[in-house]
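FAQ: What does a ligand-bound record look like?

Like this one, built around 2-acetamido-2-deoxy-beta-D-glucopyranose:
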Amino acid sequence: MVAPMVTTFFLLFLATRARGQTTDDVSWAKRVDTGSQVVTTMQFYFHDTLSGNNPSAIKVAGPQSSASSPGGFFGQLMMIDDPLTEGPDKKSKLIGHARGLYGQAAQNELGLIMILNYGFTDGMYKDSSFSLLSLNPAMQSVREMTIVGGTGLFRLARGYALAQTYWLDASTGDAIVGAKNKGSLIQILKMKIEGMILMLCTIFIVLPLAQSILEGPKEVKEWFKELPIKKEKVTKLHFYFHDTTTGPGQTAHQIAESNISSTTITQFGRTFMFDNPLTIKPDIRSKRIGKGQGFFGAASFEEPRFLMNLNFVFTQGRYNGSTLQFLGTNPILHRVREMSIVGGTGVFRLARGIATAQTYFLNDTSSIVEYNLVVIHYH
Ligand SMILES: *[C@@H]1O[C@H](CO)[C@@H](O)[C@H](O)[C@H]1NC(C)=O
Ligand SMILES: *[C@@H]1O[C@H](CO)[C@@H](O)[C@H](O)[C@H]1NC(C)=O
Ligand SMILES: *[C@@H]1O[C@H](CO)[C@@H](O)[C@H](O)[C@H]1NC(C)=O
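The answer part, i.e. the structure of the complex:
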């Protein structure tokens, strides 16, 4: 039996820079426009509930044998749809949700690899989101994690989050075992977010002229040496993504689900690994320009909304062998969905950008989604 843990609650707002202009309409975020960029500092509470009648974090996969690690927790993967609130009280104002996966990735301590999208519903941040991709050593008093991209007001965002456990209740064994067995583990994390958002004043569309890019450690080093004199370029990409979940030509396979996936309309926790063709026209027989490889998983209790973590791997022309990394949530019934491009390789080294998805065709077994990407990169 571990006593409930309460850590002191510090206020962690950074002092607002005096010269900047602020345009805040919510109490939990401060936005300072410095002219060349916008720095947003946010503070809110994240409620992760594993037990009870309404858990917000549900196991979707785990190791075959619990003997593989102390406590059998290693490898356990949870899908979450966790409320974010203004205050520590769960009944305080709801400002958004953190959706996605976290999994235990450390053998001897609590170390969670987190693949999450934080979507907001309050004030000017409504419909904006950011993506976090980081390890969370959850027993440390302060954890710093990486924010890799965003949408809406957080387009092209980079930043970091500091998480502190506000309250933790592990009523059976230690916290790790408590999460696996029937004991309750409820965590409220306090987060301070400092996002760096570059403002885009003009968009130039410049197509890279170079031939296929040279790879290898030496070539990459050379490439970085020239980076200070390289210009930012903006490339637009347009293609169709074909997803087939059953039958002939299946490209997406279910790999995990939760014990409520089959009984909830949003199929919460159901996760697919896919290798989907990308074509230049909606017709699957049109020219293939690459593949979308990765996974998507149902990450919302409210609507069909999927965490998407994938690579676009291009196979044609000057983009042959280059990739773009994509992370966000996709509410598939919305007409237009915005998600973030958080990195790339080859001609897309250091890329950041935005992808918009629109459904061209959808039935029970397959979909064709039109993607428009706008990417900033340097090659
Ligand atoms: C799902 O699993 C959790 C934990 O293993 C359990 O507490 C819960 O009762 C299960 N829910 C259903 C609907 O079976
Ligand atoms: C793409 O690159 C691969 C590996 O270098 C090569 O085998 C292939 O022919 C190239 N494809 C096109 C269309 O250029
Ligand atoms: C969905 O559409 C695809 C492509 O037109 C078709 O092959 C498939 O049979 C359809 N599935 C259902 C359940 O209608």
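Follow-up question: can I read anything off the structure? Yes, for example: Confidence is low (pLDDT under 50) at residues 1-20, 171-186, 195-211.
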